[in-house]
Design brief:
alpha/beta, five-stranded mixed β-sheet, histidine biosynthesis, transferase, ATP phosphoribosyltransferase, nucleotide-binding, ATP phosphoribosyltransferase activity
């Protein structure tokens, strides 16, 4: 399998957009969209292999060389802080990493006066760095889902989470306060693979670049 190029991709919308993008450069991976529990797919004709993994695990599989390439959101890369080459912004999966708080609090709150605040988030590393740069101390509570619930039950007054349309925040009585980062999906590459499979990987990167 050393002559194969392996790509790690998460399930969901990213997978659909990735398959469509690869199709534009002649890489056929439609099988990944089939209703199956398979996690590894191989295209022997094109010498490609695909791994379906959790989004948060994509950088790890690529960093350790189990996958040569990966597609994942910039938010995951910022949080994971892995040693990877990131050649392309793929321009899909746009959303924002936001600080949010209850609407009633936002009407009287002054973010410039924040100090020693408690924040619930899936992104403790990114959140800590962001507030440290502003000189604000934060107590971080890591959660893995339904971050909007934290202010509703008194776990924290504020959250840091991904926002797409903002509808989920509104439905839970939360207001957007600050944008930490604008997020899109990125192509990532294992540094060793870039050398050992340089010709094939460069061809993929150049092909994708022409279609984004």
């Amino acid at each position: 399998m050393t002559d194969y190029v392996t790509i790690a991709i998460p399930k969901g919308r990213i997978l659909q957009d990735s398959v469509a993008l690869f199709k534009k450069i002649g890489i056929d991976c439609e099988e990944l969209l089939s209703d199956t529990r398979k996690l590894v797919f191989e295209n022997h004709e094109q010498k490609m292999r695909y791994m379906i993994v959790r989004a948060t695990d994509v950088p790890t599989y690529v960093e350790y060389g189990c996958a040569d390439l990966g597609i994942v959101g910039k938010d995951t890369l910022m949080e994971a802080e892995k040693d990877l080459y990131e050649p392309l912004d793929l321009k899909f999966g746009y959303c924002r990493l936001m600080v949010a708080e209850p609407v009633e609090l936002s009407t009287k709150d002054d973010p410039a006066a924040w100090n020693n605040i408690r924040i619930a988030t899936k992104y403790p590393n990114v959140t800590e760095k962001y507030f440290a740069a502003k000189g604000i101390q934060v107590e971080l509570i890591k959660l893995y889902g339904s971050i909007e619930l934290a202010p509703l039950v008194g776990l924290s007054e504020r959250i840091v989470d991904l926002v797409s349309t903002g509808e989920t925040l509104k439905q839970n009585g939360l207001a957007e306060i600050e944008t930490i980062a604008e997020i899109t999906c990125r192509l990532i590459v294992n540094r060793a693979s870039l050398k050992t499979k340089h010709e094939r990987i460069s061809k993929i990167i150049e092909g994708l670049e022409q279609h984004i």
